[in-house]
Predict the structure.
Amino acid sequence: MTKKHQKLLELSKEELSLQTGFPITQAKQFNELLFSKGQELYRDLPWRNTRDPYAIWISEVMLQQTQVSRVLERWETWLELFPTVDALASASQAEVLQLWQGLGYNRRALMLKRAADYISEHTSGKMPDEVLELEALPGIGPATAAGIVAFAYDKPSLYLETNVRSVLLHEFFTDQDQVSDEELYQVLALCLPQDNYRSYYYAFLDYGAHLKLIMPNPSRRSKHHATQSKFEGSHRQKRSFLLKQILSTSEEISFSELAYSLNTFEREHDRESLSDEYIKEILDELIREGFVKKSNLNYLSK
């Protein structure tokens, strides 16, 4: 959430009504519907039973483009091994990435580690409680920052994530396509109540998840909607496979071992073997982006 969006919270409901074109009465009716749906569809998820900003941060990052069922299996295990920001900062990068395997998008784990390092060093392990301060940390975007502020601190924020987006599109932009997030931020600010932000956004999340089960995803009508790229056979899958192989051993691993393992995997899935040059490019990417240290690899040895 930019400073521009943050300023929406300072506007009166009358000003926001003029900006959006929606009357205040419609916003009030929507909130009545939303809280009703929230009670009806409430999901008792474990991260909803804590006010710990660190634990909520972990859940928010894990839930990005990952099914709730998979996060349910991993969130508590993560907190058992890394119960605090300082514990995560003290862990090795390899330990963090190893535990993250199966949750997708390893970059998220890398950013968690980097942000924890910063918080541990600069704020004595205390998580910020303001959106813009959180956004300044590595890997924390607008939705994650707003979620931490709402769910951990029960403070006002504009939490625009996929389920919230779906609900707003369904209720306010029924017959419109290519709706911008700018419009949605304004409507969200118009509807935002004076308190109880934590429960308010839980209702959004549960209603949005329900809508996706009973109709085509309303988020398709967002101007910013993007279909998640196919994982099977993708460059991302090959990166993930190689990283998993490297993390599975504490010993130096050679290029020939990695190439053999990856090409065996490719052939088992009816795909052609990859060239040495392409595999080296992937390894160079992993080193350059900080996932792997060059000292872990003897990757020029063939």
